[in-house]
Specification:
With 267 residues, this protein is of the alpha/beta class. It has helices spanning 10-16, 21-35, 57-61, 73-83, 88-91, 104-107, 129-138, 157-161, 165-171, 190-198, 213-219, 229-242, and strands spanning 44-48, 65-70, 94-98, 113-119, 139-150, 176-178, 184-186, 202-210, 254-261. The chain contains twelve helices and nine strands. Helix 3 links the parallel strand 1 (44-48) and strand 2 (65-70).
Length: 267
Amino acid sequence: MGEDTWADLADQFADEAYASVKGYVRTYVMHHQLLEHLPAPPASVLDVGGGAGHQSFPLAQAGYDVTLLDSSPAMLHKAHQRLQRLPDEAQRRVTLLEADGSNAAEAVKGQRFAAVLCHGVLGYLEHPEPLVDQLCQCAAADGIVSIMTGNARTMAVRPALEQRWDDALASFDARTEIGVLGVPGRADTVEELSELMLSRGVEPLHWYGIWLFVDWLEFSGAKLDPTDSKQVAATAAVELEAGRRDPYRQLSRVFHLVGRKGNSAPA
C-alpha cells in the first residue's frame, strides 16, 4: 500500500461499501461473533486498522472503551465524522490514533488491551507475521485477539460466480487477487494464522465464516436492496448461522479467527 492509498477510496469504502447489504452483514455478523468472546464492558478495545469505526463504534455504544488506530488520515477523518453522530457518552469512550499497525505497540505507549481487533487489514500486507506480532503484543494477559481476513481456500469463488472461468481455474492455488475496491489483496488460511497466533502466546479459540450467500448473490449479479430492512435482517440472521457451521463456514470468502492470550505469554 502506498502513502495513504485510502485517500481516494475513503468515500467509497466508508459511505458506499458499508451502506450495502454486504456491509451491514459484515458488521452485524462480526459484532455478534465478538460478543461471544469479549469480556464485559467497559473493557478496553484496540481496533488496529479500524478505518471509519464501523466495527468498533458499536462496541463503544455497548459500553467498551475503544481506541481506533489507523494509518490513513482520510479514513480517520471519516471516523471523526461518524463519531460525531454517536451519543456523547459513547463519543467519550473513543480515542482516534493515527499510526501504522506495524508500530501499534509503540503507538499505544505500551498499553495492553482486553481485546485487539484487526479486521480486513492483513490482506493488504505482503506478509502477515509483523502485524500479527504487534496484535499479540498489544493484548493483555487473558485478552482477546480478533482477526478477519480473506480465505485462501475459496479464492476461486468470486471469479467463478462472475463467470470468469479462466481466472477461476487459475485461482484454486492462488493467494492474491484484485479486490472489489480495485486494490490488490492477499488471503490466508485458518491453520496458518492459528499457528502465527499460537507461536506468539495466543491460543486460537474459534473461527467463523463471513460472507457466504450474500457473496454468491452479489457476484452472480443479483441486486440486494439495503432499504428493505426485513429482508436485510433475515439475510444477516442466515449469514450469522452459516458462519458458525461446517461446511458453510469453510466456503465463506472471508474468515474470522478469535484467540486468547495466555497469562504467561510475553508482553
